[in-house]
Design a protein that fits this description.
The protein contains seven helices and 13 strands. The chain is of the alpha+beta class. The relative contact order is 0.16.
Length: about 260
């Protein structure tokens, strides 16, 4: 068993019995640790708590009402250090194949165990000795600081389409012009449901590949990347399989590329 397989077995687990289900408008949308759920009892006008379940109050009948009520709660939780890593960015939460139910600060998504959507891009320099651009996350990042990552990756915020986020993040993280970023081709769809220090990561990642010219050099624009590295494909695959330097998300996206390319380097 590879280091990656052992890591996936260790970090990829999700035991539903350890969590309470979180509902909004009668729809199951999240997972709450019991201690976190107990803290929500401070707001009986917002949450209805019973054995095994937490519901947003029925009186909160619109997207705007739910968003405002949750926003006040999340701000209080952040002020008390319970929700950390404030992003000042909203995610839109919906039930599967349903309309949006509310918007919430991104930093609260994992504590509430809410489903999110992300876009990642493998940066590829083709040739006889194929190479991949990889990034090292800034040590100041709220999640997975200092770890290796795909060239581009970001969450899909409220009001944005995945294609817009890809172009936006490509520029902010690697200085990739929009015309080049739009040439990225879709890959696999990766679903993650696992316990993390903040709560639960429930996320769908849309993987993409982007062919880059040999003379391309990424330049970070937003301070979220500490460094870039252009490495032979076989070395990147070895880093994924034999070390824990990559974030689990990025490792899965990288392996998705190699599986689709039929390239085990």
């Amino acid at each position: 068993m590879s280091v990656f397989e052992r890591r996936l077995a260790r970090e990829g687990r999700f035991e539903r019995s350890r969590f309470l289900r979180f509902f909004a408008a009668g729809q199951a949308v999240g997972w709450l640790r019991p201690a976190f759920a107990a803290g929500l009892s401070r707001w009986p006008e917002v949450f209805q708590i019973s054995t095994g379940e937490v519901h947003l109050a029925q009186r909160l009948a619109t997207l705007e009402a739910r968003s405002e009520a949750l926003g006040n709660v999340v701000r209080a939780l952040a002020d008390n250090g319970i929700v950390t890593g404030w992003r000042d960015e909203s995610y839109e939460i919906a039930a599967p194949r349903g309309p949006a139910l509310f918007r919430i600060e991104r930093a609260a998504v994992r504590p509430f165990g809410l489903h999110s959507l992300a876009v990642h891009v493998n940066g590829i320099v083709a040739g006889d000795d194929k190479k991949l651009w990889i990034a090292r996350r800034s040590p100041a990042k709220p999640t997975d600081p200092g770890m290796l990552d795909n060239l581009v990756g970001g969450g899909v915020g409220a009001g944005l389409a995945p294609a817009e986020v890809l172009v936006k993040e490509a520029w902010e993280e690697a200085g990739i012009e929009a015309a080049l970023a739009r040439q990225a081709t879709p890959g696999g769809t990766i679903r993650i449901l696992r316990e993390v220090p903040e709560g639960v990561q429930s996320e769908t990642i849309l993987a993409h590949d982007l062919s880059l010219p040999p003379d391309f050099r990424p330049q970070n624009q937003d301070g979220e990347v500490a460094e870039f590295r252009l490495a032979p494909a076989r070395d990147v695959l070895a880093l994924v399989r034999d070390t824990e330097e990559f974030t689990l998300d990025a490792a899965l996206v990288t392996l998705d590329h190699f599986a689709r390319a039929g390239d085990q380097s």
